[in-house]
Amino acid sequence: MRFSDMQCKRVGCALSKQSSSRRLSAFAAFLILSLLLTGCQTTPVPSHQLPPVEPISSLIFTEQESGQAAIESPSYLDPVRWWDKGTQDPLRELVVETPAQLAARVPKRSNPQIVILQYHNIVFGRTGGEYNRDLYNFEHDLVFLRNRTQIIGLDDLPYIKSGEKKLDTDASILTFDDGDLSIYGLVFPLLKKYDIKATFFIITDFVGTVGYVNWDQLKEMSDYRNAKGEKLFSIGSHSLDHKRFDEIPADQIPHELAGSKSVIEKHLGAPVWYFALPFGAGAGRKAVIEAAKNSGYRGIRTSRKAVIQPGSIDLYDLPVFYMTNERADVLAQQIYSLLGR
């Protein structure tokens, strides 16, 4: 079909009007966007015209045992320093001091107490899991504990109970439940580097399964000795299969305790002295305590929240403070409160 000249002119005119309209719309949109962007810009204020910032005092007041206020340098108990936009370096705090300097920093106590810390998994980054403690906060835990307590091992408790070992500071003990792979990949290198003791309670049936340590890794940890020839890490039992000890029949308890102990000792060639109750269930149960003693355990760690008085240690009812995924400064304040400080 052919168009007449008049029809062609009409069509061309219509197309020309549509094109002009689109160009006008685009130009208007560009103009509006330019005005908006220009309006969002502000002229920067020269630094000499900014209001002065009031400095935060670098001194804090603490209460001595005598009841008098004293001034001391900021500590990791001070929440202002815990979250200061990344200017802190927890690893530097762990490294720079010699053992003598560190011992001099830990407050002396006329009534020292002991707190056992219960960890599970250590992970990279923040998580919502209650059992997951992130590495950043874990490192801050270590700084706080080294600044405020003497970090000892579970194996020291019988000697403190008998009076052979004396405490003049608060003490802390690190324990880890279940045998998650993170205890080998993250915790072991960190504690080894900074010469910190710990006990790892493992579920023997879980060893070597996905997400858990294997026997070679556990033996490496158990066999490790520091520069002074001291054994830093002990492996304890967390049962064969993580059953609740307030529910299983009394006649099964000796098998769980003796069986798990025997398996660990066979693989590692080292004695197992402590047992941690799965879920903390069965604490104080006579059948559990009797079976533990008959199997050769020196003590039972529960999940009951409390601190230990050196003069009244019950090795078969050891309480803990459970380390959740809470901020490190919050847990530090809770631990200090539990210690009565």
What is the topological layout?
Layout (H helix, E strand, L loop, with lengths): L4 H36 L19 E4 L5 E4 L6 H4 L7 H6 L3 H7 L8 E6 L1 E3 L8 E3 H14 L1 E3 L4 H6 L8 E8 L3 H12 L4 E5 L12 H9 L9 E5 L15 H16 L5 E3 L9 H10 L3 E7 L12 E5 L5 H11 L3
Parallel strand pairs: 3-7, 3-12, 4-5, 6-7, 7-8, 8-9, 10-11, 11-12
Antiparallel strand pairs: 1-2
Task: Please describe what this structure looks like.
The chain has one domain (88-338): Alpha-Beta Barrel (TIM Barrel), CATH 3.20.20. Helices cover 38% and strands 16% of the residues. The protein is built from eleven helices and twelve strands. The protein has helices spanning 5-40, 79-82, 90-95, 99-105, 135-148, 157-162, 182-193, 215-223, 253-268, 286-295, 328-338; strands at 60-63, 69-72, 114-119, 121-123, 132-134, 150-152, 171-178, 198-202, 233-237, 274-276, 299-305, 318-322. Strands 3, 6, 7, 8, 9, 10, 11 and 12 form an eight-stranded parallel sheet that branches. Strands 1-2 form a two-stranded antiparallel sheet.
